[in-house]
Amino acid sequence: MLDYLHSAGYHKTFEQFKEEAEQSEYDPDPNSKTSDLLVKKWTSVIRLQKKVRAVTVSTGAGAAGHRQHRSQPRERERQKQKEREAAEAAALKKREEEERAAAAQASSSKKSRNSGSQSRSSSDTKRGPPPENLRVWHDRTGQFRVDAAFLGYSNGKLRLHKVNAHEAEGGIRIPEVG
């Protein structure tokens, strides 16, 4: 290393490295067998790497490995995209479940408040839809939202069973497929 630094003209670096390596008695000899040995080794390593690359490409193994190496970032990006989509779907499902649970809890607390009164209307004795059938329904504008279960669709009207145990009908236009 010292020989290389000296022969390459890095005299300050040579002196500093010589001091840190505690080789104060070293004196470079340009006529010795080991002169420029490090440069020769580096050159031979690079030449051998080129030969190995040429052989692997000519046998096809290198080309396949190179294609695989190039496709790895794309594959990782696809995997990340799938993970993001799965996380978004899980978050949406969790949010819908929380909305259903909140609606069911609001409905049950309303029923418990009304249970103390003596006069009950016939609609209060009905039960709401099962929580697993609930979903959030909204109009096209997004201003009206209701937690309800689907009961049916006939004559252009959608029938829903709301959380408060009332049934609701609403006109909806569904394009005919034909």
Plain-language structure description:
There is one protein chain. With 178 residues, this protein is α+β, with helices and mostly antiparallel strands. The chain has two domains: 2-59; 68-178, no CATH class. Helices cover 52% and strands 14% of the residues. It contains four helices and four strands; from the N terminus they run ααααββββ. It has a four-stranded antiparallel β-sheet with strand order 1-2-3-4. β3 (157-162) and β4 form a beta hairpin.
Number of domains: 2
Fraction of helical residues: 40-55%
Cα-based radius of gyration, to the nearest Å: 40 Å
Secondary-structure-based class equals: alpha+beta
The counted number of beta strands is 4
Biggest sheet architecture: 4 strands, antiparallel
Number of helices: 4
How much strand content do the residues show? Answer: 5-15%
Low-confidence stretches: 117-124
- Strand arrangement within the widest β-sheet reads 1-2-3-4
What best-fitting shape do the alpha-carbon axes yield? rod-shaped
Write down the overall mean pLDDT.
78
Give the helices and strands as they follow along the chain. Answer: HHHHEEEE
